[in-house]
Prior knowledge:
The structure is a single chain. The protein has a domain at 84-215. The protein contains five helices and no strands. The protein has helices at 4-16, 61-96, 98-133, 142-178, 182-215.
Amino acid sequence: MPPVHGLEHLQVEVRREGLLDHGQHRPGHGPGHRVHDQEDPLDPAHGHAVSHPRRLPPVDRAGWARLFLFLHVLGAVTALGPTLTYGLWGRRAERAGGDVRAFTLRTISWVDRRLATPSYVAQLVTGLVLVWLLRLDLLGTPWLLASLVLYAGIVVFAVALYAPTFRRQRDLAERLAGDDDPAVAREYREVAARATRYGLAAVVLTLAILYLMVVKPALW
């Protein structure tokens, strides 16, 4: 019988050669023969193939910025586009008078509530997200700060002046469609003239914001 220390020396040498590792056996070899090989997940002997789920590539900050820039521009188109046509609709409606005028003003109100106003709100949200994604210095970017100040001014102006005046014009047009009362007609002309001035001012302010966003002038 060999000495015990000789057997221990042999085991050390076997481990050093990497033949004893992880308890894996190669088929056809004895229990003492261990290998590093891993099982092939596509080997038919295992009975099935291991599938790995596909993952979408991660979207970096620049990718998100491009997405929100697209949404921001889309919001500008859908907000400003209808607004620029309100005056044309109103002029044609005044020439037609009666039911046509009332219907046109109702349609303008319908479009404004469902398209233009939500688009203006989306403009603010996507714009603020872009400021964060692009890491813009709000106070240190004059054109951006001026745009936000103008935007806040338009909101106050529209809520306090333009919207109530236009609603009054629409209501008076409805009354005139059923009864051509001279007093109502006189009030309608006054309200319509005021609504036209307010609408023109809102368009000018909106175009000023568009100019700042596109040109990005150095204001100070």
